[in-house]
Fold each of these.
Amino acid sequence: MQGRAIKDSYDVVVIGSGFGGAIAASRLAQGGMSVAILERGRRWQNSDFPRTIGQVSESFWTRGKYHGFLEYRAFKRIDVIQGVGVGGGSLHYFNVNLRPPAAIFDRGRWPERISRPTMDPYYELVEQMLESQPLTPPEGRDLPNRTRAFQTAGSKAGYAPELVNIAVHTRGARQNPRSGVVRQPCVYCGNCLFGCHVNAKNTLDITYIAAAERDHAAEVFPLHLVDCIEPIGRHGYRVNFRRFRADQPRVSEEGSVIGKRVVVAAGSLGSTELLLRCRDHFKVLPDLSPALGNWFSGNGDFLIPGTADAAARIDPGQGPSITAKLSHSTGDNIITIEDLGIPDSFLWFLEGILPPRHSRVTGWIKLAWNYVLRSVGIAAGQGRVSDEINALVQSGRTPRFLPYLGMGTDAADGQLRLVDGEIDIDWSHKNSRKMFREMEQILKQVSQAAGGRYCTSPLWRWPLRKLLTAHPLGGCVLGSDPEHSVVDHRGEVWNYPGLYVVDGAIIPSALAVNPSLTIGALAERAAFWMLRDRDMGCEDSDRPVALGGQCRSQLAVL
Ligand SMILES: Cc1cc2nc3c(=O)[nH]c(=O)nc-3n(C[C@H](O)[C@H](O)[C@H](O)COP(=O)(O)OP(=O)(O)OC[C@H]3O[C@@H](n4cnc5c(N)ncnc54)[C@H](O)[C@@H]3O)c2cc1C
Ligand code: SF4
């Protein structure tokens, strides 16, 4: 139909190209294996990212209709937003790469073999590869207003806000060493959600995937949606897919490919859905663990609460979408709050649908009245209406709105299951309510310190009492036995040698920080184990220099 032809078989077939799939695929290709990456979404160039209203109207992925790069799914009590495309969630993510506190790994569900010290070398590798660091403003610019207001309010409320590591390039134009892609420094446009037009974001397609394709002959097959994985004895697994046309999304054809090893990396919902179908519908993987679908977590996400009428001007659309955080441990919970940028296009949309303030209504009347007077020649010589226009925009609700993203240790007690062949989430906030109460307490303190009024998350209001997560986790969790987990500590599926899950689905608890770095580090670790059958040690030349190794390069040589 289009693109390069897929071969009959590969050493490794990877399903999905987000943080789990792209990183595992890249390292395995670097280790000399032939690798095919099957991705249901399309490949994006920076000039394709949506900006106009017409482009945004097609930016959500719908099977057989739009090859968009975002997917929004609504379930009972929780909604999920996730990425689709070569590079997965990195295309639209907010660039934050954070290591969770060590205490997260001690909270009971993680296998003993995985702790912060075990994970640190792998964290370091991903941070190097994505050039992740705190925001240094581009030349001629200061920190965004939003960042400064967040830092000031957080400190005043008694917390210790700090800049977070973000994978955003801010210094001078240069070529990405892996992909050759020319990257301009960040222009503070605030559109990280819709993809970066200047390639300032260090997304997976221009880092790990590009390196794997250029130097190690990994092959990427966009618009390939995997339906089923079946074992074929000692030869590995047959992966069945539908290949969609780029120009006619309704048209597709079936195909299959054999992988001696198969890495499922379709995201928490995608991987769990695929394996549930293989176990319960196609009945080709009957010995998958009974724990499949357990321990779903929304990572304690609490999206877009905010401070209205903050004392300082915020301009929430300016600069990279997240820049700073504050952390707090209560007796039982770990909580992180970050500033949250919103693209200007959404802010203008919000201004249009929110009920207007009194000052805005009087502003409109004043503008209309003066305009008519001047148009009929009364008040001649005072023809400018600039003052009235400025006042009207200033009286909007968003210029002084400081939005937040909260994350915390929710109970991770959701259940993923199939309903009519589609993934569904059975989730209740009952066991997580205390954590959300504690989180809102912090948000109220910060709002007061910002001189404004606290507004809760829009979906959390009565009667919906719902959450939206951008960080779905769990469903195929890792662990120490096949009764309570789906994969072992390396991501290999119990009872199915050579079949792996490597993505957010294997994380067994909320992380209380943005998860991409942990997913990436688990993928680095899974690939290292596949190639060496052990953890990275001091003797390895690819161990990062910060941990006593030798690797200074961005892409450690295996
Ligand atoms: C708006 C937004 C902002 C975010 N910002 C941050 C942030 O700043 N920091 C952070 O750490 N996290 C952030 N996240 C979360 C982050 O994007 C995810 O945690 C991460 O991408 C998950 O990685 P993954 O490998 O599990 O899956 P994904 O990155 O979702 O990749 C899965 C891939 O598999 C593909 N796929 C699914 N099913 C199939 C199938 N059947 N066949 C073939 N392909 C399939 C999907 O199209 C997708 O490309 C954000 C998320 C959103 C929505
Ligand atoms: S704000 Fe985000 S989208 Fe805009 S240039 Fe910077 S990194 Fe790119």
Note: Residues 92 and 194 are 6 Å apart (CA to CA).
Amino acid sequence: MTKIISFISRKGGSGKTTNAINLATSMHDLKKKVLLVETDPNYTLISSRKIDVFKYKLNESKLFPIVASSDDEIAPELETLISSGQYDYVIVDSAGKTTDQGIKELCLVSDMVIITTSLTQNDLLVAYQTVKDLKPAEKLNPKLKIFILPNRIHSHTRIKTVRDTLANLDVEMFDTFVPQRKIFTAPSTYKSERKYRCITKTILEKL
Ligand SMILES: Nc1ncnc2c1ncn2[C@@H]1O[C@H](COP(=O)(O)OP(=O)(O)OP(=O)(O)O)[C@@H](O)[C@H]1O
Ligand SMILES: [Mg+2]
């Protein structure tokens, strides 16, 4: 059964794209059949993949696909993908500017929504608002699991500190965080980052 994991946050730059691609390459490494869908009209990942293929002379048919979609089309496209059963996981990287309607539709078809946030005051406020906006979708879609993924956290921070800082958000948090690291700033679109593996494992355990 295909599982849909959507990265959603109203905050631009909170780490949706960074985590979506790291999760996808990591899952591909675990021999999962993965499709990465980008709804952000900047299409950063699709462009990065083209560059990787050209630069490293890769055989694209051996890589997991990265495809474009849009707020209007994503929900019916995901329904079709689920019924085709072609993929184990579909990862959706949405745009910070996604409309309310777009977010709602994505939540209704997703198994898991991951809200990325740092611990800065600004990010926390937006994460709080994003959780509030998404919560009603849990009633409409009983399979939906909403999680906070703390991102860009100083690597020496204790998980308890992260938990305490995020305690006001009425939502589950993964038992791990993504540290602020240079290796995560320019992720490969085909090679997994070893240091992301434990995060992938934690996400898969909660699905
Ligand atoms: N864990 C991390 N460590 C270091 N840099 C990070 C990390 N996560 C994100 N970044 C950097 O922060 C910036 C914003 O990240 P990213 O593009 O993933 O955010 P986004 O939520 O997809 O933004 P948008 O809403 O604009 O699409 C990028 O320059 C990225 O390299
Ligand atoms: Mg992005």
Note: Residues 16-17, 40, 93 surround magnesium ion (ligand 2) (CB under 6 Å).
